[in-house]
Every structure is written in C-alpha cells, then in structure tokens.
Amino acid sequence: MNPERYLPRSLPQQLKGLTELALDLRWNWNHSADTLWQKVDAELWEATEDPWLILESISRKRLETLASDTDFVDELQRQFDYRKEYLSQSTWFEERHGDNKLGAVAYFSMEFGLSEALPIYSGGLGILAGDFLKTASDLGIPLVGIGLLYQQGYFRQAFDTDGNQLAFFPYNNPTMLPVLPLQGPDGEWLRISVELPGRTLYLRGWQAQVGRIPLYLLDSNDLLNDPGDRGITGELYGGGREMRLQQEIVLGIGGWRLLEALNISPTVCHLNEGHAAFVVLERARRFMELNDRSFSLSLQSTRAGNVFTTHTPVAAGFDRFAYELVARYFSGYVKQLGISMDALLALGDGLDGDDRDSFNMAYLALRGCGRVNGVSRLHGEVSRRIFCPLFPRWPQHEIPISHVTNGVHMPSWDSAAADALWTEHCGKGSWLSTLESIEQAWHNVDDEKLWAMRNRARQPLVEKVRQRLARQQAACGVSQEGVLQCLQLFDPNVLTIGFARRFASYKRPTLLLADPDRLTRLLTDTERPVQLLIAGKAHPQDEKGMRLVREWNDYMRRPEIHGHGVFLVDYDMGLAAELVQGVDLWLNTPRRPWEASGTSGMKVLVNGGLNLSELDGWWAEAYEPEVGWSLGDGQEHDHDAAWDAVEAEELYMLLEQEVVPAFYTRDEQGIPTSWVARMRQSLARLTPRFSCNRMAREYTDDYYLSAAMAYRRRAADNASLSAAIEQWHISLTNHWQQLRFGQYTVQESSTRHLFQVEVYLGKILPTAVRVELYADPLPPDADPVCVTMDRGEMLAGSTVGYQYHATMPAVRPAANYTPRVIPYHADLSVPLEANFIRWLE
Ligand SMILES: *Cc1c(COP(=O)(O)O)cnc(C)c1O
C-alpha cells in the first residue's frame, strides 16, 4: 500500500522518506529523528510529539521550503538510512534461533500502549503490550500484534475549579492516527466478518508499524454495519457487559480471521489476559475445517500452541459473562463446532459457587492453552491459589501456572542523561544484548557521575512541571500573574518524589495523606525540603476513586503546599515518561496482593531513581535493603483500615528517618554517598532483571518455542498424535472411577523407609498413569516432595493390579507421605490437560 495516499497531499520528491519515518512508531523510542521533526514544525512537535500528525497538518509551502533545504534533506536521508540499518541488523533472535523453529507468534491484547499518538490503552496492561512489541522489534522476535482500533481512546482528565475530576472522550479520527488501512488482494479495503445474533458484523483492518513488528487493528465503524454495531469498537472498556462480549468476540474470533485473511498462520497464539480467549475457539474451529477433525480433537491440537498470561490477582477480577448472554451470541457458532451449548459453556465453567451461571474468560483461556503464567513470582503463587477450583484435590503448588515477571522497554523510558551514561558504560545498544555484562559495568562508574546524571535528569522535569502547572492554572482561570508565578516554582535540587497511577482504591493513592499535617512538615522542612508530584486518573464511574483525586487536589491547594507539591492532570504515557526520568524516588502503596506486577516503578530503574514500595508484585521479588525501601510485612491484610494506618505510619517513618536523611547527608564533594550507593545497586542489579528484554527472551525461550514444537507434533500427520491423546483421555475418563488402592505398607528404619502400595488399575494401562509418593513441603515455602514409585509385580486376582514401591531416606516421618495416582503421557501437560488425581484415603 502506498501510505502517501492517506496524506492530504503528495510530498515533494526529496521528502518521500518522511512518510515511512512518520508511520514507524519507533520514533517513540529512538529519538535520533526528534530534531528532524522539530525542524519540520517546532511548535507542533512540542505540543504533540507526533510525526504523522505533523505531516498531515503542515502547509504545502512549508514542505517546499524544507525540500529545498539541503541540510534538512541530508538529515532526512541519514535518518532514513538509520532505519534501514536497524531493520537489517542481525538480531538476538536470529543469532540464537537462526533456524527459526518458532514460526510466527500472534500476540492478542485488548489494549496497546505504544504512544500518545495512538491512544488505544488505559493502563498497565496496555503499556506492557506496547513495551513488548517494541522489545520484540529490537530482538527480532517474529511476532505480530492484534488489537482493536477504538474510536475513542481512554478518557482524558481535567479538573474543575473545585478540583473535581472531569472526563473527556476525544474522538480518534483514524486518518489522523499513524495507522494505514489494510488492503485485500485486489487493492480493496481488507474486510472480515463475524456473526452476531441475526446479523453479520463487518470489520475493517488497519496496520500500525512498530519497527519490525506489525500491529493489526480491527474496527467496526463500517457503513455496512447497523448503526449500533458501528460503535462496538467505539470505546475501550466502555459500554455494558454485552458490548464487552462483542468486543471480545471481535478481538478473538475477528482477530484470528484477520490473520487468515493476511495469510499469516501463527504457530503460537499468546493471550495477553483472558479478554482474548475466544481466539482458542476460532483457532480450533479453523483447524477442524481444514483437517476435517472433530472440535475436541482440534482443540487438543491447537491448544498446545496457545499461551495464556493472566494478570488478575483476585478471583473477583476475572472477566465473566452471563450464560444467557453467551448462549445468545454463540448459538450459531456451536453448530459450526458440532458441540452442544452445554459443552461450550463448560469450557468457561467455574465449578465453584461463585462462578455458577457465568462464563469465565480466564477459565476458557486456561482450558484452551498449553502454557499459563502469571506476571510476577508472587502473582504466580496467587494465581495458583485462585485457579485451584479447576484442579480439585491437587495441591496448590502443583496448579500449572508459572510466572514470567513483567519488564519495561528501557529505551522508551530512559532520560537523555541516563541514555548517555548507559551508552558510555554499557555500550551502544546495550538493550539489544543478553544483559550479562551490565551489572559489572555499573560497579566501575564513579559516584560523581552517577550523582551528576541524577541532577541532570531532575532539571528538565522541574522545567516541565512548571509549564504543566502553568497550563493547568490558566485552564482553571487563575490570573496571569499567578500563572507566571508557576514558572518559578519548584527547585531542581530538592528531593523529588513521584506517585502516579490509576486511582483505584486498592492502590491506596491517599495513604500518604493519612496525616496531612505531618506530610506538610515533611515537604516544607526548610533544611531538607521535599517536592511531591502526584498524577492519576480515576475511572469516571468510580465515585470512590474520584473522591481520592479530589482529596489530593484539596491538599495541593493549601497555600503552604504551593511550590512543594502538585497534582498533575491527565496522567498518560507522556507524563509518565517525564516523571520516571526525573524523580529521585517512586512511591507505590497497593494492598498486597492486588498489584499483580506493577511496572511504573521499573521505569525509574534505568534513570537511577529508587523505589519505596509495598512488598507486592514485582517489588516482592526485587527488594533488598541495598536497592531501596519496602513497606508492609509481606502478608495479606485485605481491606483493614487499622492495617492501613500501620502502613501509613511506617511510610512516614521511612520517609522521615531514612529517605530524607539519605538524600541530604552529603560528603565533602556534596555527594549523598548512601543514596548513590543504592542507586548503583538498583541500576546494576535491577535494571537488567526488570527489563522487557529479559521478559521477551523468557517468553521466547521457555514458552513460545516449546509451544510451537508441541503444536507441530500434535498437528502433524492429520493430527495423529492428538487422536492418540484423545483416546488416552477418553479411556482415563471412562475408567478412572474403577481405579483403587489395595494394601499399603511401610517398613521404617533409622535410615530409610520402604513404602509399598497395591494399585488396581482395571482397564487403565499402567503406562497411562504414574503412582507417586507425595509429602507437603516443609517448611511451607519449600518444594513438596514427590517421587515416582516403581512398578513391581502384577498382583494375582481378577482385576489388573500392581505392587508399587519406593524407598525414601528417613529425614521425615513416614506418615508425612501419601501415595497417589496421577495421569501420565509424554506429550501432555498434567494436570493442565488432565486433572485426574486419586489419593490413598
Ligand atoms: C507504566 C504505566 C502504567 C502502569 O503502571 P503501574 O505500576 O501498574 O501503576 C499505567 N499508566 C501509565 C500511563 C504508565 O506509563
């Protein structure tokens, strides 16, 4: 497709390259072309940092001037060459997996936070997806993204004169967004369709480019659709339950169809949260059609290639739909699958009381994927707990959910000062490598340099805060004099603390306001002052969250706080980047375990900022006393107001007695040595671990490759392996009830115990099961003990039975151990795909 068709004019020959540069969202993290855009239109660049918008807005005359400016044309050529070089560079993926056993990965997500220029995200989930695409581009991972193009992005925040939150929903005009329509084979606009009750929904396809990675987006705003349906992709997380279901049908079913229309056949499908779970149905349905197999066998085959990442820390957070609603939308679809509605509903069935009559998308995802993970070590544990109902009688540690801790795309969040120091000490493109040498490199940087970087990064933040505050004040009707005063406020030498996040109550955004006067004393101390930058949006339907916004606004308007603190309006990626680059300390106060991972605190790492955070999400695995500060006792306390008060007290104490003194205690050169020591440890140890580079490599090496191979094995030879697995599964289902234990004996001695147990298998093949000896972990955070018992002689008698035995060293009492029988198949994940278990009673 010729992208220029979508510009309101043609470009002079010398400037043709601008279109390609403007459409590649890589300008977002590779700032080498910034000056180019600045030169095109300084004012627009300052206001939007959006090259595509600039290109669409500037005059023909300006373009002609630029075309005759040889310096500009040379610079454009240089940038164009850089881009070519980036795209042709050899990558981590090529070097490590040159044979590409992986094929292609399709990454499905309800939101993508790539840039303010493409506002199709609301928070952490989207930012993660955006950072992941950027990293996949850097590392050369063969991946495509699938999402929705919303007509309205997430809302924009403003304040009224009293400090109440106002919400605005600006319209995303697709022709002004850096996306291009996808074309079909005959040059027509690529269109796919999905069936809704009594009608067909048509979806148009768009493409955004993220370096090497395409992001495909669907939207329903097509004249062919009913007026009501044109709004299905109208608003991210807008509308009621029915609209959410429609959106998820578009993402999962429509998304898979779009890939097919583009001739992309992924081996691996990655579901970023349960919203996308319908893709497992559609992928299986297509497999079924192409191979003429049953739905269950097709799901068995395709499931192996699906990966599910859950982000939810409490069962109440799972996405659910009433049975009645699902039945209405899928009545035609189940006929195509050749299954009953009950069989479909059973895929999202919760088994437990809570979930009766509702279809749980996370459960569908779990039942349709071959690998499942949470997003931090702690969240992995929490997820094993909340998915327990799907694995009756299985111990919690064996619930088949592992974790890949989130990370952030460092080049998107680093400051110019940090980037310079990183390049000097770790080499150019350190984020493209395996990160092994990074820790050592930081131990060779001296204190002055680290401290100078911090000071250099704080300055532009203060400058931007002044300008933002001035704009905010002007918008609220403050006098011109007052507005001008804002440009003098704040001090680039003062300890700067940031707190910015969605104002959901579990994040406890006002914990620091528990004792406002104490906070005021902290901020306004004349010797050792602190400046506090707060930002965040409350969901427009969340009354409580909006009250918390108002509380901060009330506090910030106290005259004595003037110049010591500010609530910055309209938290978004742009503001987030300014904050994480400049602040010295990032605060995070969620109620454990509600923050599945959290990523904003990771963004300060590369900039030498420190974290003070609740021991939740990523911080629960990152925290050591050398790298920052921790809040809470590492336990769960639910919504306990008394406990919140305890933590508020702890927070004040930490700030007053540790953070402020560490920052202001200086040596003869004016360097806060203990602060800088923490900076060094945090930079050296945490940055590589919490970078998206590490995360993307983990997904590739430990999830995608094994998923791709498992899928290929199952699908080969017209799915013969899947057919065998299905037979195996049917046989276990039919005969599991007959399985029983016979005599169990233990011979104890001072050194070892000998365990023997008789198991009657009936019609189950001895190779289809494993008899194990299991003991709960001791201490509770250790691994459980689980050994396979050896099969001995066949027992005489009418049903097939065997004697199984095992010997264990006598470190634990024999009574700790219990024999059990579980399924076994070399090509299957147990208990994920077969959750039978029988314990000796
Ligand atoms: C990074 C980021 C988030 C996610 O941060 P949390 O730690 O999950 O709060 C949310 N919104 C924006 C704008 C961000 O940049």
TrEMBL record:
Gene3D superfamilies: Glycogen Phosphorylase B (3.40.50.2000). It comes from the Bacteria. GO terms for biological process: carbohydrate metabolic process. SUPFAM superfamilies: UDP-Glycosyltransferase/glycogen phosphorylase. It catalyses: [(1->4)-alpha-D-glucosyl](n) + phosphate = [(1->4)-alpha-D-glucosyl](n-1) + alpha-D-glucose 1-phosphate. InterPro entries: Agluc_phsphrylas, Glyco_trans_35, Glycogen/Maltodextrin_Phosph, Glycogen_phosphorylase_DUF3417. Residues 11-118 form the DUF3417 domain. GO terms for molecular function: glycogen phosphorylase activity; pyridoxal phosphate binding. The modification N6-(pyridoxal phosphate)lysine is found at K603. Keywords: Allosteric enzyme, Pyridoxal phosphate. Belongs to the glycogen phosphorylase family. PANTHER family: GLYCOGEN PHOSPHORYLASE. NCBIfam families: more_P_ylases. This is Alpha-glucan phosphorylase. It comes from Desulfocapsa sulfexigens (strain DSM 10523 / SB164P1).
